[in-house]
Design brief:
This protein is of the alpha+beta class and 404 residues long. The protein contains seven helices and 17 strands. 30% of the residues lie in helices and 25% in strands. The strands form three sheets. It has an eight-stranded antiparallel beta sheet with strand order 1-2-3-4-8-7-6-5, with helices on both faces. Strands 9, 10, 11, 12 and 15 form a five-stranded antiparallel beta sheet that branches. It has a four-stranded antiparallel beta sheet with strand order 14-13-16-17, with no helix packed on it. Keywords: Coiled coil.
Length: 404
C-alpha cells in the first residue's frame, strides 16, 4: 500500500483545532483567485475547479486503526455533551434546564465551526507537502463522521428542549452546515475505511491548492467528485440574495446545462439555511446528480458534489496514439479533467491487452479483457506505465486541466 489512509494519531491532533475556533473566510493563504465560478463545459454539468499550483496525488482506502481511533475519540467527545445535559436534567428547574441546553448547544456549534478550520489547515499542510494524500483524506473522513455525530447530537438536544415549557432550539441551519461535510464520495470512503464492503474502485484522487480542494473517486461506473472553494465562503458580508428564489435563479446561471434537462429526469430544488447564509441547490441530470452550496455573502459556489455516470459523459479521443514495439495506447478524455479512458491493444493485431496500469508510479488498475481502464488523471501532465505479458510501455500524457 503506497500511500494508505493510515496517519499517526499525532498527525491527527496536529490538524485539529480546539473547540471554540471560528471558521475562517477567504483564500487559505491570501490573494484573490482568477476565477471563482464553475468551469463552463459543453453537454454536461459545469464543475467547480481549483486555480493554479494544484497539488495532485493518490490515496488508497481500506480499514485503518488510527483513523478508527480518531473517529471514536471525536464521537466520545460529542456524546459527552449530551451526557452533561442528561446528568442532572431531571432534577433541574426549567430555568436551569434552559441554561444547560444553551451551553451544550453553544459547545456543539463551536465544534461545527472547528470542522472547516480543520479542513483549511489540512489543505494548507497538504499543499506545502507537510502531510500525505492519505493523511489528508483521513481529515476529510474524520469530519464526515463527526458531522454525522454532531447532527445526531443536535437532534437529541432539540428533543430535550421540547421538555422545557416555552423553550425551543432550531437546528436547521446547523444541519445545513453539517451537510457540507457529508458528500457522497466521503460516504463511500467511510464505508470502505470502516471495514465494510469495498465500494471504491482503486485509489482516490486528491487535488489541493491555496483556495480549496477536490476529492474524486470511482464507484463502479459512477464518478464521484467533491469540490470546495474556501475563497467563495464569506460570512463577514450580509446575505446578497434577496430570497431563496433569487439564489435558485443564480444557481441556474452557474449551471445552465444542469437546469435545462428533459422532463422526467427529476425535480430541482433549493433549501435555505438562513443563519448560516447557505443555499443548497439540487439538480438531477441525465448524467447524474448535482448538489451545490451557494454562499450568501459571496454569491459563489462554496461546495459542490457530483455523482456522474461515466458511460453518459461526453468524451473526446486524444488526437494521437502512443506505441511501443508491441503495444499501442490510446486515450479518451471527459470534460474538466474528469475520468480518462485508457485503451491498450496489440500493436499489430489490434487485440485488447490485459495489463497493469500505473500513473506517476501509482497502481490505478488493470485494463482487463477489453483492454480498457478508467483512471482519475492528476491536474498536471502525468506518466503512464503499462506492464503486460504482451509487452511493456511508458508514455507521458499532457493534462487537459481545466477543460477538454
Amino acid at each position: 500500500m503506497k500511500d494508505a489512509v493510515a496517519p499517526l494519531l499525532a498527525l491527527l491532533l496536529a490538524v485539529s483545532l480546539p473547540v471554540g475556533a471560528v471558521a475562517a473566510t477567504g483564500p487559505i493563504d491570501g490573494g484573490v483567485a482568477a476565477s471563482t465560478k464553475p468551469i463552463e463545459t459543453n453537454e454536461t454539468t459545469n464543475r467547480l475547479a481549483l486555480e493554479s499550483d494544484v497539488q495532485s496525488g493518490y490515496a488508497e482506502t481500506g480499514p485503518d486503526l488510527a483513523t478508527t481511533l480518531a473517529i471514536q475519540d471525536d464521537a466520545m467527545r460529542v456524546d459527552r455533551e449530551l451526557f452533561v445535559v442528561d446528568e442532572n436534567f431531571a432534577a433541574q428547574t426549567n430555568d436551569e434546564r434552559r441554561e444547560t441546553l444553551e451551553a451544550a448547544y453553544d459547545r456543539l456549534r463551536q465544534r461545527i465551526d472547528a470542522l472547516e478550520q480543520r479542513e483549511r489547515t489540512a489543505v494548507r499542510r497538504h499543499t506545502r507537502g507537510e502531510i500525505s494524500d492519505g493523511e489528508f483524506v483521513t481529515v476529510l473522513l474524520r469530519n464526515y463522521r463527526e458531522a454525522t455525530e454532531l447532527e445526531d447530537a443536535l437532534t437529541e438536544l432539540e428533543d430535550r428542549a421540547t421538555r422545557v415549557p416555552g423553550y425551543s432550539i432550531s437546528i436547521d441551519s446547523d444541519r445545513g452546515r453539517l451537510g457540507t461535510y457529508q458528500s457522497p464520495v466521503r460516504a463511500q470512503l467511510d464505508a470502505t475505511t470502516d471495514g465494510g464492503v469495498e465500494t471504491i474502485d482503486g485509489a482516490v484522487l486528491v487535488d489541493t491548492s491555496q483556495d480549496g480542494f477536490i476529492l474524486s473517486a470511482m464507484h463502479g461506473r459512477v464518478y464521484l467528485r467533491e469540490a470546495t472553494r474556501f475563497d467563495n465562503r464569506d460570512v463577514t458580508r450580509p446575505n446578497q440574495f434577496q430570497s431563496i428564489s433569487d439564489a435558485f435563479e443564480h444557481a441556474e446561471s452557474q449551471y445552465p446545462w444542469a437546469f435545462d434537462q428533459p422532463p422526467g429526469v427529476g425535480s430541482r430544488g433549493a433549501t435555505e439555511f438562513t443563519a448560516a447564509q447557505l443555499y443548497r441547490i439540487r439538480a438531477p441530470t441525465v448524467h447524474g446528480d448535482l448538489e451545490a452550496y451557494l454562499d450568501g455573502g459571496s454569491k459563489e459556489v462554496y461546495r459542490e458534489f457530483q455523482e456522474l455516470t461515466i458511460d453518459e459523459l461526453p468524451s473526446t479521443p486524444e488526437n494521437r496514439t502512443w506505441t511501443s514495439d508491441s503495444l499501442a495506447l490510446s486515450v479518451n478524455r471527459t470534460p474538466v479533467n474528469g475520468p480518462v479512458e485508457i485503451t491498450v491493444v496489440d500493436r499489430e493485431t489490434g487485440e485488447p491487452v490485459d495489463g497493469t496500469v500505473t500513473v506517476n508510479g501509482y497502481d490505478v488498475g488493470r485494463t482487463g479483457e477489453d483492454g480498457t481502464v478508467w483512471i482519475l488523471p492528476p491536474a498536471d501532465d502525468f506518466d503512464v506505465a503499462v506492464r503486460s505479458a504482451d509487452g511493456n510501455m511508458d508514455v507521458s500524457i499532457s493534462s487537459s486541466y481545466p477543460s477538454v
